[in-house]
């Protein structure tokens, strides 16, 4: 049997797309914007990335409606965002990180970027 968009989810036992949520954010420009991001990423399971669509705040947190088998316990009542998800080319095919222009998994990674972007990052006002 060949894997198609219609059958692909049944082969994805890690249920990758249901292990996190993202929220697009305004592109950070000022030092103050990055200070807020540092505060956010200092918390557990918070990451940031930038791709061709812009900047995103990502929370690594699995959907509480996942069954032990990886299926959706609320499939018939699932939210529209789940229904509209296009898996023609998804993380089963390739890791999302491959398309990230920037990716920050830790406070230290983002702080290092801030220090490079803002030469006077560590100077007081």
Provide structural commentary.
The chain is an alpha+beta fold and 125 residues long. It has one domain. It contains three helices and four strands. Strands 1-3-2-4 form a four-stranded antiparallel β-sheet. A hairpin with a 2-residue loop joins strand 2 and strand 3. Helix 1 packs antiparallel against helix 3. The protein is elongated. The mean pLDDT is 92.
Distance between the first and last residues' Cα: 64 Å
Oligomer: single chain
- Averaged pLDDT, please? 92
Count helical runs.
3
Q: State the domain count.
A: 1
Strand order of the largest sheet: 1-3-2-4
Key structural traits:
125 residues, alpha+beta, four-stranded antiparallel beta sheet, 21% helix, elongated
Describe the structure concisely.
The chain has 125 residues and is of the alpha+beta class. The protein is built from three helices and four strands.
Chain-wise SSE layout:
Layout (H helix, E strand, L loop, with lengths): L19 E6 L5 H11 L4 E6 L2 E7 L19 H4 L18 E3 L2 H11 L8
Antiparallel strand pairs: 1-3, 2-3, 2-4
Helix pairs in contact: 1-3
């Amino acid at each position: 049997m060949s894997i198609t968009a219609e059958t692909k989810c049944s082969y994805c036992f890690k249920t990758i797309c249901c292990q996190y949520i993202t929220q697009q954010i305004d592109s950070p420009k000022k030092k103050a914007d990055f200070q807020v991001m540092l505060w956010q990423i200092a918390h557990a399971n918070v990451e940031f990335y930038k791709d061709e669509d812009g900047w995103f705040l990502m929370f690594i947190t699995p959907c509480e409606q996942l069954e032990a088998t990886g299926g959706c316990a609320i499939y018939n009542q699932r939210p529209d965002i789940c229904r509209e998800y296009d898996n023609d080319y998804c993380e089963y095919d390739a890791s999302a990180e491959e398309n990230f222009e920037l990716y920050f998994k830790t406070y230290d990674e983002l702080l290092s970027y801030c220090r490079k972007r803002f030469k006077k990052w560590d100077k007081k006002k």
